[in-house]
Design brief:
Blueprint (H helix, E strand, L loop, with lengths): L1 H7 L19 H6 L5 H21 L4 H27 L6 H16 L11 H19 L3 H24 L7 H13 L12 H6 L5
């Protein structure tokens, strides 16, 4: 059993290959659906966010201040979600071949080929299903407040996608993004078990996983 697990383990802490890509699926349709241009999901989520905010202002009973507050809460809440997702799902310890294969498909292939621009975001077909699921969950938990909270969450996710793309696709810029570029590079090239926050290092400081 251990030998089989180790067959997949290189994808967990794979040695980065700066260039190139890797085929994940034999089926050409599935392979195509596993890739996306970064502007497709970013545009999709920003438009969705704008529509939901418009609905919140025009068709819910919340005050403008409450809508803005819920939006800000969703935006901030995403930073914690991003950290938890990256640390505990994307870096799932591959204790079985099945878990190892899931981890590699979700995230290990990205660590092995970090410069592959087509796999820096969740593919739109899957993302839409996940997004609908999250909106449904938030609506069950908070009712119409979800129309204000979820747009902030989506803007946070869009910001994460933009930062993630920038730090992998371009050389370090001479502005504030440079700190985020270095922070994420530490995660990829120095210590995979640190610096899980991509859009913000806040929660790495809180939970003790930050590395200079």
């Amino acid at each position: 059993m251990q030998a089989k697990i180790d067959d997949f383990r290189p994808g967990y802490h794979a040695r980065p290959k700066n260039n190139g890509t890797k085929q994940l699926f034999e089926n050409p349709l599935l392979e195509a659906l596993s890739r996306t241009h970064i502007m497709v999901p970013i545009s999709m989520w920003l438009i969705s966010s704008a529509v939901l905010v418009w609905y919140a202002f025009n068709y819910t009973n919340f005050s403008n201040r409450a809508i803005i507050g819920l939006f800000a809460t969703g935006l901030f809440g995403f930073t914690l979600f991003e950290y938890v997702l990256h640390r505990y799902l994307y870096h799932l310890e591959p204790k079985t071949p099945q878990r190892a294969k899931i981890q590699y498909t979700f995230h290990g292939v990205h660590h092995e080929f970090p410069k592959d621009k087509t796999r820096l975001a969740m593919p739109p077909a899957l993302a839409i299903l996940v997004g609908l699921g999250f909106f449904g969950l938030f609506f069950l938990l908070m009712g119409e407040a979800a129309y204000s909270f979820f747009p902030g969450f989506l803007v946070g996710y869009s910001g994460y996608l933009a930062v993630h793309f920038i730090v992998h696709a371009y050389t370090p810029p001479k502005n504030s993004f440079k700190k985020l570029w270095i922070n994420h590079s530490v995660h990829h090239y120095k210590n995979h078990d640190s610096n899980y926050g991509v859009s913000s290092p806040l929660w790495d400081h809180v939970f003790g996983t930050y590395q200079k």
